[in-house]
UniProtKB/TrEMBL annotation:
Pfam families: CxxCxxCC. This is UPF0260 protein TH25_00075. It comes from Thalassospira profundimaris. InterPro entries: Puta_zinc/iron-chelating_dom, UCP006173. PANTHER family: UPF0260 PROTEIN YCGN. Belongs to the UPF0260 family.
């Protein structure tokens, strides 16, 4: 029996399609985050990027997102080691750290909606930055990490 690619390849060795399929579609990376400059503690908010569909957890213009949101961070082989703000459930972080994908991950289940169905996404829990109060501290949550 052949093992799936994520069990046999390092992130750096994956094809573009394999890399993209590792994303579980949780939407947590699209949340606004606040950094306490005194303590270096990172806080997640329930406010999502304006491009995120808050129900499906899909980017409304994934291909062109950097044009609309210049500070959008695109995970890549070049930055995966240095990005420390990914939530503990992030598939890229799990694989980077030598762990396996969770049983609810779409690559494991074969269902592209399994992350949402398992309650592991931001679906129904966030609002768009377009609808949020400017004071993001009011939206700090602890569930993404």
């Amino acid at each position: 029996m052949t093992l799936p690619f994520w069990k046999t390849k390092r992130l750096q060795d994956m094809s573009r399609d394999e890399w993209e399929s590792v994303c579980d579609g949780c939407g947590k990376c699209c949340l606004h985050k606040l950094l306490d400059e005194d303590t270096d503690v990172l806080f997640y908010t329930s406010v999502a990027c304006r491009l995120l569909d808050c129900e499906s957890c899909q980017c409304s213009d994934y291909t062109n997102r950097k044009q609309h949101v210049p500070d959008c961070v695109q995970l890549s082989n070049e930055n995966i080691e240095e990005i420390d703000w990914m939530p503990s459930s992030c598939a890229y972080r799990l694989l980077r750290d030598g762990k396996d994908l969770p049983n609810w991950h779409p690559l494991v289940t074969g269902d592209p909606k399994s992350t949402v169905k398992a309650g592991m996404s931001v679906s129904g829990r966030v609002i768009s930055e377009l609808d949020a109060h400017p004071d993001l501290e009011k939206y700090i949550v602890d569930w993404p990490s």
